[in-house]
Amino acid sequence: MTQRILILPGDGIGPEIVAEAIKVMQVFKDEGIDLDWSIGLIGGVAVDEEGAPYPESTRQAAHNCDAILLGAVGSPKHEGLPRNLRPERGLLDLRKDLDLFANLRPTIVFEELAHASPLKKDSIAGLDLLILRELTGDIYFGQPRGRRRTSDGAEEAFDTMHYSVPEIERIARIGFEAARRRSGRLCSVDKENVLETSRLWREVMIRVGSDYPDVSLSHMYVDNAAMQLLRNPKQFDVLVTGNMFGDILSDESAMLAGSIGLLPSASLNARSKGLYEPIHGSAPDLAGKGLANPLAMILSVGMMFRYTFDRIDLAQRIDSAVRSVLAAGLRSPDIAVSGEKAITTAAMGDAVVSALRS
Predict the structure, then answer these.
(1) How far apart are CA 198 and CA 187, in angstroms?
(2) CB 40 within 8 A of CB 57
(3) 280-327: per-residue pLDDT in tens?
(4) Would you say the pTM of this structure is higher than 0.90?
(5) Which residues, other chains included, contact 156 with Cβ-Cβ below 8 Å and sequence gap of 6+?
């Protein structure tokens, strides 16, 4: 059965890191894995060529594929555009259109890179953390939103934080299932002491948790969770939280690994159709210079094989190849420390391919 993949390179460093992901997929295709991929537009490049950050051609292709690989969206040249034409709108619309409500962001600290983190090595070495972020609700999508004038003529802006019980239930169950497959520990992150949405969130998490007696459920306020991620990250195994809190905490967790260029992600719908992307941005200052780290993009390919195609064997091969490249001392500029020589984006991709073929 052919596995159909839509590739959306996007903006900035997106095309460079996606090129290395394609090299990795070509290895498996050469081995007889039935993969078929096509290229589409999203973000700023889509605005330039199609007049919209998520054009109709991309929307149709997204609905007709089995999985999507995305590089990055965002560019300075489009920052002055109306909100509906901003590159980031393309990613939000894609997530909403396919109902990709569950965002899985693993943080694994490779032994070879523990020294690259600003945290003490003994506090992070061996860390294996999964942050599960609800992706299609919360303040990013809540209505009403906008700007208006008050009665005294002052301008104000407003956004609405919103969650329904079904939205919380479905992300809760994915979290409990993930915890059940790991260590059986789940921490739900909210702000229940001040937010009505968080009060509902906690009530639903407790109720759903009663269906998973083998999973230990705990709760933590988001401000404390942000501190504890730096103070003692190994206390966590699976964290489940809302869209905005998850956005912030998962980016913070990048520093545990030493670089945001190392962290992949998966965004899944109820049928395990997935959008796979590194969590870093488009880094326009690095674009075209061969300085970008492609490992998060390559590890995202591994997540695609794991979660959508159910080929855990191929995912494990990618993970092992990345580990072997790092063990060999190869580094991109973002993870090279004093005395270590950095290699280019393409060279890092080639090294992973070589490890896969060996």
Answers:
(1) 14
(2) yes
(3) 889 999 999 999 999 999 999 999 999 999 999 999 999 999 999 999
(4) no
(5) 147, 148, 149, 150
140 counts as catalytic: yes
DSSP string, 264-307: EEEEE-TT--EEEEESS---TTTTTTT----HHHHHHHHHHHHH
Query: What are the structure tokens assigned to 334, written together?
Result: 């973002």
Residues 6+ apart with CB under 8 A from 179: 185, 186, 212, 215, 237, 238
Interaxial angle between packed helices 345-357 and 295-307, expressed in degrees from 0 to 180 and rounded to the nearest 10:
40
> Which candidate in 163, 191, 273, 334 is catalytic?
191
Decide if 44 contacts 81 (C-beta within 8 A).
no
Percent of the chain residues past pLDDT 70, beyond the cut: 100
Is 23 noted as a catalytic residue in this protein? no
Cα separation, 224 vs 114, whole angstroms = 24
How high is the pLDDT of residue 312? 92
State the catalytic residue, choosing from 11, 66, 138, 247: 247
Asked if 93 is an active-site residue, the reply is no
**Cα(283)–Cα(265) distance, integer angstroms:** 17
Q: Which of 48, 97, 159, 251 is catalytic?
A: 251
| H helix and E strand count, the chain | 12, 12
Burial class for 325, CB neighbours closer than 10 Å (0-12, 13-18, 19+): buried
Task: Pick the catalytic residue from 23, 138, 140, 212.
Answer: 140
SS3 label, residue 6: strand
Kindly report the backbone phi and psi dihedral angles of residue 76, in degrees, each rounded to the nearest multiple of 5, phi listed first: -60, -30
Predicted pLDDT of residue 255:
77
Residue 289 is among the residues annotated as catalytic for this protein: no
When pLDDT is cut at 50, 70 and 90, the band that residue 45 belongs to is very high
CA 290 – CA 308 distance, rounded (Å) = 30
Q: What pLDDT, on the 0 to 100 scale, is given for residue 168? A: 97
Q: Is 247 a catalytic residue?
A: yes
| Distance set, CA 336 to CA 61, 261, 262, 285, 293 (Å) | 38, 12, 13, 18, 11
Cα gap 76→283, rounded to integer Å: 10
